[in-house]
Phage tail protein (Limnobaculum xujianqingii), 241 residues
Amino acid sequence: MIEKQILDHASACYPEESCGFVIATEAGQSYMPCLNIAGTPTEFFEISPDDWLRAYTAGDIVALVHSHPDGLPILSGTDREVQRRTNLDWWLVCGGDIYRYKNVSPLLGRSFNHGSMDCYTLFQDAYHLVGIDMPNFSRSDNWWETEQDLYITNMAKTGFYRVKQAEPGDIILICLGSHKANHAAIYCGNQQVLHHCPNRMSKRDIYNGYWIKYTHSIWRHKAWPSYGFTAILNDMDVSLI
């Protein structure tokens, strides 16, 4: 199996980072191991131009693969920066498992489009970078003016429970011009949130005044890892460069 080949390659390269590609052809998917030519391969990886050419000529590149020996199962800031340039899904080997990360849009500076690039999409993509995949929900414009109550109906169903005090990574639901919780913000610590309001770019904001006044509830995911917010912070730090 392709997963076994990827894990075996990572094990053979330890303590250096492994790297390679998942390639799709008419015969199916295959793993193409590559040589890590980085100057410090125990800390970074670099794929040679020759291997990139070999991958492009072998078929369609499905994903770039590398490992984090003894590291965290999340993409580093450098990983996210290079992932955006390659415009590929990245598969990460860590602790004997394979984590698959889509090339989601940068969390900061997104243009708003309800239903496809909105506060829930930001919430969904940020959690994807943590390793928690949220389902897609069909949501019509102004759903909060109907009988629907999408956030409250689905938070517990998707693994969240309510808390009283926010910690980094928690979801703060806000009543934005409505009596229903129709806006989600990610708490960043230090009284800051990451969110995406209508007709604005996604950004970090001070969590005070209006936002606190109209806060509906605070939610934490049951599977939230201790390193979770690091994944989100890595993405935001790259956007600020």
